[in-house]
Amino acid sequence: MSQESVTSGERRGSLSGWIVAVAWLLTFVAGYFALGEFLSRMLEGILPGQISKPLIAIPVLALIVSLALTIVWARRRVAGAPQGEEAPSGRRRFLTGAAASLGGILGVGAASFARISPWLTVQRTIGDAEVPTEDPSPQAGWSGSRIQEYRRLGRTEARISDISLGSTKIRAEKGGEAIARRLIELGVNYFDTAPDYAESGSELLLGRAMKGYRDQMFIATKFCTPQGHLSPNASVREYMDVVEASLERLQTDYVDLVHIHACNSVERLLAPNTHEAFDRLKEQGKVRFLGFSSHTPRMEEIAAAAIDSGRIDVMMLAYHYGSWPQLGEIIDRAAENDIGVVAMKTLKGARHRGLLENREEADTYTQSAFKWVLSNPKVAGLVISFFDPQHVDEYLHASGQRLTSKDLALLEKYDRLNAERHCYQHCGACLDSCPAGLAIDDVLRYRMYFEDYGDEKEAMRLYAGLERQADACIGCSAPCAGACPHGLPIQERTSGAHRLLTLA
Fold first, then answer.
1. How many domains does the chain have?
2. What does pTM read for this prediction?
3. Which of 29-38, 123-132, 294-303 has the highest mean pLDDT?
4. Does the residue 140 lie in any domain?
5. Separation between Cα atoms, residue 73 and residue 79, nearest integer Å
């Protein structure tokens, strides 16, 4: 080989090396911004089919191109070696290409990891954080509390415990199964669960807990997957599959009630595939009744459509002290049509700051809040998350009790202490004020989940799924100022929510 050809080979190798280096640099960037974003959204709980395809296609294509260029570079690099080294050139070619490719792949992995590292921090440090119990010193009078009242759940004819188990936060590793079984023994007969509670862990736990008690229980679950809501375009088969998967986890042949989960539009309420799936499941004896759950400013519209449809047996609505006025009218209409009403979100947040010093005014804020909800005889019962053994005695102590003036005074004090923090009314008065079309009520609710409920990861997952996020509020001229009839500083709360819920 002439000196000229060797030099030419070295130049080709040098030129190719620069091309490979640039290709891998671009791949690292794609790994961070595209693949990292894809993985981040997966951690947030968004289904892969609902994530933009380029987020995975771009880094994969970049990786393929970089690997191909690396192989070419390695071949040319070895081919340009001195003649005396021609014999081992095949091995050197392989080792050189493999080392470069492995280094590149590890670099892409490191770039992607850098993008999702905040999520891993959330999972490790606060993902399973507990919200403090309302009172660290249980009262002796709570001991021995059990269900004192059962109410008719509309046309289902079931009589359910006025205080029932919501299983959003119940966990097996925190004694959840023992809590559930104790509740059954103390008279709780209504269990509310969903596949996406604890990523199916709630259903698995309740399935074990109610062994030997199934015939005493009224079980409600939801149309969804362990990762979240079904796509609006989901097929009848997909709707049926998620319920059948719930039956398997619950270790039962049927559930009493299946809800259209967190229903936020009339279109979703009346989606034909949902109703066809329910009809087929009912014919097969796998479900008995159909319901929906909702906590949206469109609740009145959705509830009216549900009543008019004649299809809905049970409504689960956000209902608490200070609820927007129309909600009472909705409950009245539901009762007139023999539709059962179950209350949720009864505590307006789970961290009741500043109330422990008011122990002599009433029992606890939770008990006062429950008694207010149950003072409406048209509400069949309420669901509340039990995740601490203390909750059993504390929460059940409110069963069958009547609302007092002391309870009302404590509820009013809570509202004063937490004014200008969260949207509790869900009136929707602010929604038309935002030029970006931001779902202000949802943003503020997810901030509440993060700050007061202790559901940091869930709040971030839900926020990530919003069509529009509150980064638009940062630097905005704030036409929303004054839009809240209750005085919430909307822009301050929403822009702060964005920083909180995106780890920005």
1. 3
2. 0.67
3. 294-303
4. no
5. 10
